[in-house]
Each structure stands twice: as C-alpha cells, then as structure tokens.
Design brief:
single chain; alpha+beta; Alpha-Beta Plaits; Glutaredoxin; five-stranded antiparallel β-sheet; five-stranded mixed β-sheet; 9 helices; 22% helix
C-alpha cells in the first residue's frame, strides 16, 4: 500500500535521521563481521541516487542488521563475492539476532519498492519461525498452511519442532510454525516463495523470523577474518592473519578466573601453569603439523597478568587480546567457565571442532581423555561427520565435543555451544 505524498516525505526524513546520516550522504552500516549471514533482496522501483539513499535509510533502521548495502550506489563493506547476482539491497543478520522478513518487506514497500526475491545466503543452519493470526483456526486452515510449506523444495529435509519432517499444524488463533534445517556453504534459499505462497493461500503471516539455528559460525564455514585483535606487543592484527596457509589452526579462548562446582560446593578458579601443562604437551606434539593461538577475551583479564601466566607456563604459541570481545561473540566462544573453549580450523580455514580441551581442566591430574588431540588428528586426516565437524553428535548441534551428554549440544558439563540464537 502506498503512503500519501506528505506521509512519504515525513517518513523519509525520520528514516534518514534515525539512520545517522542526512538525505545527501547516508552511510551503510559496517558492524558485525564478514561471517554474518545475509538477507539479499531483488527489488524493482524508481532509480536514482536519491531513491537509493531512501532505501539505505530504510535498511539502516533494522534493529537486527549489522551491515547494509544498496547496490551499486552504496556497497558498504560486504565482500563482492558474497553478493547474489540479482541483489539490490543487502542486510547482514547480526550475531544472536532474529530478522523478521515480513517487517523487512513492509518497510521496503513503504519506501516505494517492489520485492521480487528474498534470498537467504551463508546461513549454514537456519531457523524459520512463522507467526499467524487466524480469525477462524480450523483444521482446513491448518491443512492449507501445511500444503504451502510442503511445496517448498528447500524445506524437504527441514525439522518442524517435534513433528519430524512434515508440518503437522494445529491451528490456533495465534499460531507459530517452526522449521529448522541445514544449508550448504553455497546454498541459497528464496524465502519469498514461502511468504508469497502463504499470502495466495489466504494466510499472510504477521511475522516470519529467520536466524542461524545456533549462535556462532556453522561447521564447514570459515571464521571471520576481519576482526581486529591486539598482539603481545600491542600491535593490531586481523583474525585472518592468525592462520598459516595450508595448516590447521587451533584457537584457545581462556579466562584467568572463573567459578565451577565440585559436588554441591561452588569454587573459584585461578589459572595456574599446571592447568596448561597438558595443553603445552599437545601443542608440542603437533609442532610442525598445526599452529596454535590463544585468545584473551575477558575484559577484566589484564594483559600483564596474561603475559605473566604465559611465561610461567612456558607456552610457545602467541596470545592475542580480543578487547571488544568481537571474535568471541562471532564464534559464540564461552569464556565464563575455567576450561578453555577450543576451536579448530582445517587447512582451508573451515571450522571443524568446537568444544572442550579434555574431560577435565581444573584438576589436570585426573584427565583421562584429551578431546583436542583426537579432534586434531581427525582434522589432519580430513575425517568429518555429516554436519561438517570431526564428531557428529545426535541431535546435530553447534558443539562437536566427543562423548557429550548435553541434550542441546552434547558438550558435557556447562552448555557451551550457544544453541539459542536469542530473541525467542
């Protein structure tokens, strides 16, 4: 529905101010990281730089968008190779954010554009939660909605809440259909076909929220390379510079302090060289075959204290500070618990393991199984499960630790995979 001329002018002015720019010089958002998934729109509408600015201001208002672009006038910092060939407008979905496609389409249409396609790219794992308001929640209405879902080829292997692979919809006045599924690295889905199909069937949803199924980077995907870190000398270094070409990389996120439970008793952890002795042995064992880098992301951990621990422990690999916790957030690294959170990239830079170092940490003398050694041997042998990780847990999740028991991620002990993307 088109707004009246006066309403359009007022809306454009408010949108532009809210975006943090002016009518003549709007600026794309440049937050998040290069690994954030993208929603790319194919649009038709009036041309010209002035209209492109209006569209950019519209995208900049989206609370979930970390990066934006309007092509070709405002490309922002989204890498060209990530862009869909038909894309006009692009918005990246920030970490742990849900993007409402219905709201997005409504905003773009109010700006005077027609939406021809809505492409989800580089998601890896996808959740789609579609909400309806039914005045007459009948069995026939549920069947009609389910039929639309069944027509979508990209939903063939989707999992619908607890119902399995088919949408068994129980109509209610306020109804939500939940689906989740895995995408390949280069797989694209055109979610606009689902939105349009539901509209033609007479059941336009009031919201269609999409997000990564699990927080962080999916298995088989590269981690962001554009995160700025600080090395031991205080110099700046990008995350892409941590890995040597053709060699696996082990990232160790660790805290200096933390709390843990021993039985019913709550104890305080203070990192000591003895805790890192087994890690030192593993790094030495793989010397020449894989590289290691430690990441200090806890804001309260002083660089001098971290450096002192490293010297006392005799650890040969470097430690970098993540002062704004940007890399930890992008990977959904958990740094509140004593054991380090370990990430392994294969020789091509793709994520293959996320989990614990071993079956113990605060009492190293009791360690019986070193997961890091097992995982790294599998990476060097290119042995991966169907989910792209070295260990394929069931149900599939964002943690690849071996022998885990957590019902969400199987990591054992405190859940560290960040299963929830937040926002319900």
């Amino acid at each position: 529905m088109r707004l009246k001329t006066l309403s359009v002018v007022l809306w454009i002015a408010v949108a532009t101010v809210a975006a943090g720019g002016d009518k003549a010089h709007p600026q794309p958002k440049t937050g998040g990281t290069e690994s954030d998934p993208l929603i790319q729109l194919e649009l038709k509408g009036p041309g010209g730089d002035d209209r492109a600015g209006v569209l950019l201001a519209c995208l900049n208002q989206l609370p979930w968008a970390s990066r934006t672009a309007v092509l070709p006038q405002y490309p922002g910092i989204i890498a060209r190779e990530r862009l869909h060939p038909k894309a006009t407008a692009v918005a990246a979905v920030g970490p742990r954010k849900w993007a409402d496609v219905v709201d997005l389409v409504g905003r773009v249409r109010k700006a005077g554009f027609t939406v021809s396609g809505i492409y989800l790219t580089q998601f890896g794992t996808v959740r789609i939660r579609t909400q309806f308001t039914l005045e007459k929640p009948t069995h026939e209405a549920g069947q009609s909605i389910a039929a639309v879902y069944c027509q979508m080829p990209w939903l063939v292997n989707a999992r619908y809440t607890e119902a399995g692979t088919k949408p068994e919809i129980k109509p209610a006045k306020n109804m939500e259909v939940r689906a989740e599924f895995v995408l390949g690295d280069s797989q694209v889905i055109e979610v606009g076909t689902l939105l349009d199909g539901l509209g033609r069937a007479g059941f336009p949803p009031r919201a269609m929220r999409v997000a990564r199924m699990f927080a962080g980077v999916p298995f088989g995907f590269p981690i962001p390379g554009d995160v700025e870190l600080v090395d031991a000398s205080g110099g700046k270094r990008f995350s892409r510079q941590l890995q040597k070409s053709g060699r696996p990389l082990v990232l160790i996120f660790f805290p200096l302090t933390g709390t843990y439970k021993k039985g019913k008793e709550k104890k305080t952890y203070h990192a000591e060289p003895k805790h890192f002795a087994r890690l030192k042995e593993v790094a030495q064992h793989f010397d020449g075959r894989a590289d290691f880098a430690a990441i200090s992301s806890v804001k309260g951990d002083a660089p001098a204290d971290v450096a002192a621990l490293w010297r006392k422990a005799g650890l040969a690999f470097p430690v970098h500070r993540d002062p704004e916790q940007k890399l930890a957030t992008a990977l959904s690294a958990e740094v509140a618990h004593p054991p380090p959170h370990v990430f392994i990239l294969d020789a091509g830079g793709k994520l293959r393991y996320v989990g614990e170092f071993a079956d113990g940490w605060v009492e190293p003398e009791k360690i019986k199984r070193v997961y890091l050694t097992e995982a790294l041997e599998r990476v060097l042998a290119n042995k991966y499960g169907e989910n792209g990780a070295v260990f394929n847990n069931s149900p599939a999740c964002a943690c690849s630790a071996a022998g885990c028991h957590c019902p969400k991620c199987g990591c054992g002990g405190p859940c560290r995979c960040g299963c929830s993307t937040g926002g319900g």
